[in-house]
Design a protein that fits this description.
Number of strands: 0
Strand content: under 5%
Largest sheet: none
Structural class: mainly alpha
CATH class of the largest domain: Mainly Alpha
CATH topology of the largest domain: Tetracycline Repressor, domain 2
Order of helices and strands: HHHHHHHHHHHHHHH
Shape: globular
Helix content: over 70%
Number of domains: 2
CATH architecture of the largest domain: Orthogonal Bundle
Distance between the termini: 143 Å
CATH superfamily of the largest domain: UbiA prenyltransferase
Radius of gyration: 33 Å
Number of helices: 15
Length: 337
């Protein structure tokens, strides 16, 4: 048997292993987000602000500015002459009051979006053109700006502006929800009117105590509370009932509420005219405008029916708004003349 040691041995050499050639692919880069040009950003911000302005009811904003300047006009008639400093303070006060009312109604739109959708409202939040988050951010910025400018107008306007902001917040806030019952709404509206008529004179350093100012502030604030605060609900009965609100239009019925609005309008118009004859004859033209508007509003309100469209049910509130705009414009025109 041959020896195994004498057998030739084979050397095992490792074969070179080459990796298979894999085609090299480039890793796709994440596409960069296109940069928004500054002009597009400005246009977007401008559009959002316009939507917020629309949501905050421009007609109501104008009404509060007219009340503010009516207070100033009546204060000037019985107070000292204007100075450069008082004019600047009045401008700051006007901006502050605009911001406070802007916050109040924009915040209200954020809280009422469900009812507004049931009522078929075309306002930006209810229609989906403006997000609630954006509107709330703008509203809070407006409140901060109102306080800042009110501080520049003086301590009196700052106190009144703070009170107005708290009042507007409590009106719509879910924790308080004063908007749910008509008597609470009337109280909020009445106080907000008095605050507005007092804010203008205080920016001038004039106490709001002249008979003409007191009579006008009382009459027009009652016009807001007894007429506008009730008439606004005629077009929103469905949404208010769905949200569980106990407004007079829901609790008492539309017909009875229309009678109450008519009585309130005629009472304010007649009372304002009688008060002007007795204590402030210079306010008789303004009072006559309110009396004429009260008569026209009463006719339209009593002629309304339950089958009317939402636009037709809104007619008494439009007459209320037109009347107070005309009354304040007549007052300001008389003051300028």
């Amino acid at each position: 048997m041959p020896r195994l040691l004498d057998m030739p041995t084979a050397t095992i050499r490792p074969l070179p292993v080459t990796a298979p050639s894999v085609p090299k692919h480039r890793i796709p880069r994440t596409p960069r987000t296109p940069r928004i040009p500054p002009i597009s950003r400005i246009a977007r911000i401008h559009r959002l602000l316009l939507l917020c302005f629309e949501e905050s009811r421009p007609v109501v904003l104008a009404a509060f500015q007219l009340r503010y300047f009516a207070g100033i006009a009546l204060a000037i008639a019985s107070g000292p002459a204007l100075t450069g400093r008082s004019v600047i303070q009045a401008v700051f006060g006007s901006v502050a009051w605009f911001g406070a009312i802007f916050y109040t109604y924009l915040y209200n739109g954020c809280m009422d979006y469900r009812e507004d959708r049931v009522n078929g409202s075309a306002r930006p939040i209810a229609s989906g053109r403006l997000s609630r988050r954006t509107a709330l951010t703008v509203a809070r910025c407006s409140a901060a700006g109102a306080l800042l400018t009110a501080a520049c107008a003086g301590p009196g306007p700052l106190v009144l502006c703070t009170a107005m902001l708290l009042l507007g917040h409590a009106y719509s806030s879910p924790r308080t929800a004063w908007k749910n019952r008509t008597p609470a709404v009337m109280g909020v509206v009445f106080v907000s009117g008095l605050l507005t008529y007092a804010a203008g004179p205080l920016t001038l350093g004039v106490p709001p105590q002249s008979p003409a100012l007191l009579l006008t502030a009382l009459a027009m604030s009652l016009w807001m509370a007894l007429v506008g605060a009730v008439a606004k609900d005629f077009s929103d009965i469905a949404g208010d009932a769905a949200a569980g609100r106990r407004t007079w239009a829901v609790a008492l019925g539309e017909r009875r509420t229309r009678v109450l609005v008519t009585v309130g309008a005629c009472t304010v118009g007649g009372g304002f005219t009688a008060g002007a004859l007795l204590w402030a004859p210079e306010q008789l033209p303004t009072a006559c405008v309110v009396l004429a508007g009260a008569i026209a509003l009463s006719v339209v309100t009593l002629a309304g029916r339950a089958t009317d469209s939402r636009h037709e049910r809104r007619r008494p509130y439009r007459y209320f708004m037109v009347t107070q705009h005309c009354a304040h414009l007549a007052l300001l025109a008389q003051a300028i003349a």
